[in-house]
Amino acid sequence: MNELEKEMQKMNPYKIDIGAVYSHKPSMHNSVKSGTFQAQEKELVFDIDMTDYDDVRRCCSSADICNKCWTLMTIAIRILDRALYEDFGFQHRLWVYSGRRGVHCWVCDESARKLSQAERSAVAEYLTVVKGGEETIKKVNLIEPIHPFLKKSIVVIEKYFEQYALLGQDFLENKPCWEKVLSLVPEAARENLLHDFQKARTSVDRWEKLKKNLPKLDPKKGVNLSKEIMLQYCYPRLDVNVSKGVNHLLKSPFSVHPKTGRISVPVDVKKLDSFDPFAVPTISLICSELDNVSTKEEEDQVSPNEGETDVKRKTRGDLHIILDLTFCVVGNHGTQR
């Protein structure tokens, strides 16, 4: 660690990315025999970016986020963390705020680190539900019987759906919003639902009418349609290429986002609903607090408890998340990365 610290002080990087463990030092990749420079292991990682939800969020777009749409990240972590633990048996999972508009997940189990590219792709495909690009209107299609993973994901979404989609996003507020949702409905049922929507006054009322009347209007397709709409609007949107590749780099936890200055702090899944991305410390705040402490020390005005900055107190819990994970991984496998 001392060598790493000295090298970082020497290079003074503006950004730190982490990749795979290779058969040789990365600096030697051009000097070793062709085909021998290989990635030996890498954490299974997931990258969820808020910009991938631009077609379904009304409050913000592009790199902008707010507390309303941040609920999408909360839902994503709840769904994926449960699946990684219960469906795949992965014990060592670290969720990290990216510092700007999304979250990263690092799965550190030895079995995860040794996965081949095909196996990583299979995991990512299992977790991918929203499919299709901009040209695809309906991106979720459920097949009976609904898979247990999807049933559990729907339960998570239902917990947040009214507060997030119906009240926060008000996603059935006006006619343009209705038409967007009705485009997901079988054509034979649209006219009747449009009539119902015109008579209703709120998104909550319109949603209740849709859930009640769709199975009657289209007995074959309407039974699961409300679930498909919820999934399309709220289910996590993964960057599959990040997860399946072993050569992809991901920003290090506790590094500084170069555009926002925010620290990439771990997210405590046990306190997920209270996480606020706008309360995350920035590098300028940390520097300011350190300068203030240094000034007080020079003036001999620092009491024993004042030598610790407010940011350090706030992030101590974040550091423990990293340390606990590290000790578990090293203790279980008897090896160090």
UniProtKB/TrEMBL annotation:
Residues annotated as transmembrane: none
Which EC numbers does the record give? 2.7.7.-
Xref: InterPro entries: DNA_primase_S (IPR002755), DNA_primase_ssu_euk/arc (IPR014052)
Keyword set, alphabetical order? DNA replication, DNA-directed RNA polymerase, Metal-binding, Nucleotidyltransferase, Primosome, Transcription, Transferase
SUPFAM superfamilies with a match to the protein in the record:
Prim-pol domain (SSF56747)
In terms of Gene3D superfamilies, this protein maps to:
DNA primase, PRIM domain
Example GO BP = DNA replication, synthesis of primer
GO molecular function annotation: DNA-directed RNA polymerase activity; metal ion binding
**Gene Ontology CC:** alpha DNA polymerase:primase complex
Task: Respond yes or no to whether keyword Transferase is given for this record.
Answer: yes
Which reaction is catalysed here?
Answer: ssDNA + n NTP = ssDNA/pppN(pN)n-1 hybrid + (n-1) diphosphate
Whether Transmembrane helix counts among this entry's keywords is no
> What family does this chain come from, according to its entry?
Belongs to the eukaryotic-type primase small subunit family.
Name-wise, this protein is: DNA primase
Naturally occurring in which organism (per UniProt): Engystomops pustulosus
